[in-house]
From TrEMBL:
Name of protein: peptidylprolyl isomerase
Keywords: Isomerase, Rotamase
Organism name: Tenuifilum thalassicum
Domain PPIase FKBP-type: 69-177, 224-322
Presence of the UniProt keyword tRNA-binding in the record: no
Length: 331
């Protein structure tokens, strides 16, 4: 009898466990949670779109709305339903919520308005389906709050801890850009006018400024020359995205991929075109600054950390030609 009772209890336990698994419904649970949250917080039914997104305008816009193929510049705050700010382009807010990363470039997102559920080039961020839809309702200058059900967010397979999480998004659409190349040109012209008025580009490409004179006036570079250089790569707002200068990394409290000198063979395609063009203006021991349009950089492609159509600023130290180099201090 005791054995029979033990078997019966074990069987019932397995039945309960299997039933729990069978009726586990994270999707349904989150939908119910989202709908309850919407009701408790008095989000009007009129804000609901056919997809299930709730869209509420905070400040109306007066400019253009994005069309497929345009580029958009926008600011955002991503929150969970419990109010935790998870992601934002606002560094002060991320510090407040203890989610600040000093290696991340906190700036408005510049992205092609093309499709949802894709990683935005140059950012460790995704164009969520709900955000893509919300941007489509906006006009330039508009501020809006989106209430995004989980199936229009990260869905159920996110690696960032937001699986089956509904979200709140505060968006501000700064600009809709139909010609990103012209927009980039306006940014460069503004930077030059603010910092180096009257400076002209070299051969309609890069801008170059000598920061300190060379130590050897006779040593220059030509095709197939080998140079050893140190550099600091920045965006126009001064954020450093790469460097191999020890003192720069130390001052920033960050680690970069290398602190060794960079070996550059002129004409060898080891660096972007604009970087080579700057080196050809320099002599050994010289510090210079190059402002490089994207068509001499990463162009319309971008990289994992550099958005498309992004002008770059490089401070470059031409350490030596054809032989090992001496590490500089920050200029």
């Amino acid at each position: 009898m005791n054995r029979f009772l033990l078997l019966l209890i074990a069987g019932l336990s397995l039945t309960v466990i299997s039933c729990d698994k069978e009726f586990s419904d994270p999707e349904g649970d989150e939908i119910a949670r989202f709908n309850a949250w919407i009701q408790v917080h008095n989000i009007p039914e009129s804000a609901k779109k056919p997809s299930g997104l709730y869209y509420v305008t905070k400040t109306p816009g007066t400019g253009a709305s994005p069309q497929i193929g345009d580029w958009v510049l926008y600011s955002y705050v991503e929150r969970t339903l419990d109010g935790l700010a998870w992601l934002s382009d606002n560094d002060s807010l991320m510090k407040l919520y203890n989610r600040y990363d000093n290696s991340y470039h906190y700036a408005p997102v510049f992205a092609k308005y093309e499709e949802a559920n894709t990683q935005i080039t140059g950012y460790s961020r995704y164009m969520l389906e709900g955000v893509f839809e919300g941007l489509g309702y906006m006009k330039e200058g508009e501020q809006a709050t989106l209430y995004i059900p989980y199936n229009l967010g990260y869905k159920g397979n996110a690696s960032n801890g937001l699986s089956y999480q509904s979200l709140i998004y505060d968006l501000e659409l700064h600009k809709v850009i139909s010609d990103p190349r012209a927009y980039e040109t306006s940014l460069i012209e503004g930077y030059i006018n603010d910092n180096y008025p009257g400076l002209e580009p070299i051969n309609d490409s890069i801008y170059y400024i000598q920061l300190s004179p060379p130590t050897d006036e006779t040593t220059q570079l030509a095709k197939d020359s080998v140079a050893y250089v140190y550099y600091k790569g920045m965006f126009l707002d001064g954020f450093v995205f790469d460097t191999n200068i020890d003192s720069v990394a130390t001052n920033l409290g960050r680690k970069f991929s290398s602190t060794d000198s960079l070996k550059v063979t002129i004409g060898g395609n080891s660096v972007i075109k604009g970087f080579e063009q700057a080196l050809l203006q320099m002599k050994e021991g010289e510090w210079g600054r190059a402002i490089i349009p994207s068509f001499c950089g990463y162009d319309s492609i971008g990289t994992s950390s550099i958005p498309p159509f992004t002008p770059l600023v490089f401070d470059i130290y031409f350490s030596s030609k054809g032989e090992s180099s001496t590490k500089p201090t920050e200029n």
